[in-house]
């Protein structure tokens, strides 16, 4: 068990691409930490740099206050689970799980004993003599986890651990992984491009873009107060409404309609400021009768989300999304009135997209 | 023609196809038939007939001191070349597959193209002169070296395909667990390309087993001749072939290759494309 500290870490590829561009991040002992971002944001490179598969160009990595920046992967005492699980096809499950122990020179008998013990804990007991190709996707994932667990590493690194599973299994595996991490208490860093996965599993998470961290925080922080429009856009099952507005006479002018400045931002914005108004569709109420101070608009699309419906409304020159319960689904083309849930709206600066604070 | 019933036309064309196939089959099967029948014949000749069955030919052959010696030489040359080619090709293909060198593929194609020259007739004089300078003429291991040189590019080409098909994550996974490059090669890469190595090994063996020209030119002591060269000596002074000896020897000579092929095929199956079934 160990903490991880990264200080102005950078990885520059020979072609000049700064895949990881100055990362300062501390991950606490025992934490389940998610690196989230769109593809090509550098999250996998960062994970591989932690593992030692890539050598950092600048900066330092400390594991348990020990500088491991230039250490080869095998000396870092970390275990990595790859996206494709990387189970060796010519070895049985038992041999696969025992492989790291074989490298460490553990005797054959103890090896298979420990493999059996670890496998038993992940209900792989009856599958020990099978080859990876004879396992289902979920079993392969558990075998890969067992191989990582059997060496008792200081840190687990998971690269997109759930992306090779089908949707139903992914939910099960999510719960399973979270429970497993809690019971083992080993510091774990996992990479994912799925915001729902990061929100559901992580104790804390970092949202990355173009090699930089855009926000670090608990899933709750990141979901409720995205630090910038990038994070706001990336997090959430339905995209957040991000609408350009100008502050005029103490209100937000959207060109066609106005809304009062959210109370939390009173005094932080001034007349003439260009801002981006951010509001999750879940926090935008829709009513079919006129409401005082609400924005009038016309329903242009209706998307069924199961228990709720995503409605796109055109108001003035803007189009806004709102999630309504299935029972209140408005008719296509009908006129509706939109009013935001108080205290949920956020304002971002119009120039750099950072949260107004 | 247009007046003919389509059924009749179809039947006629089918008969035509079958006749064609039969002629082709006979054309290719006759030499094989000759190879199988003639050794058992009392009066062997050009014709693939059995006129009186006997095992005299085998008796004569097995008492010929050249038989066992030449087969032993063949095994030495073919086995030595196969082992050398497998080892070097495995190392080279692993390196070529994993290390990014500019112009790597062009290099490989150029080598492949040139390799047909190394073991071909055109390069025989320079190779002969080179070995003369190096004092390597009439040495069996020199023949192994020349043959290996000729076979290596194609072997590397075939094996590289197998190595390419191994996901890098296997090796990276082993690296994170602390495996050294040699452990990765021994534990992960070699076991996974074993079918490829078997294919390349048998291919190299067969190439050398049937090669006449190179050992004939580079070896002068007939005690060192492999079977393919010895067969050439079974002509009498008048230039007449000794059918009894040639046919029987040819049959004995071809048996090991066929057996080897069957064994390897059963064990690994032949594939010239890499890939891990899963």
Would you write up a description of this structure?
The complex is a heterodimer of chains A (357) and B (278). By secondary structure, chain A is an alpha+beta fold. Chain A contains eight helices and 20 strands. In chain A, the strands form four sheets. In chain A, strands 6-7-8-3-9-10 form a six-stranded mixed sheet, sandwiched between helices. Chain A has a five-stranded antiparallel sheet with strand order 13-12-11-14-20. The relative contact order of chain A is 0.12. Chain B is mainly α and 278 residues long. Chain B has helices spanning 6-37, 56-62, 65-98, 104-118, 124-133, 140-164, 168-176, 181-192, 194-209, 213-218, 227-230, 243-268. Chain B is globular and about 70 Å long. Residues 272-278 of chain B have low confidence and may be disordered. Chains A and B meet through β6 and α2 of A and α7 and α8 of B.
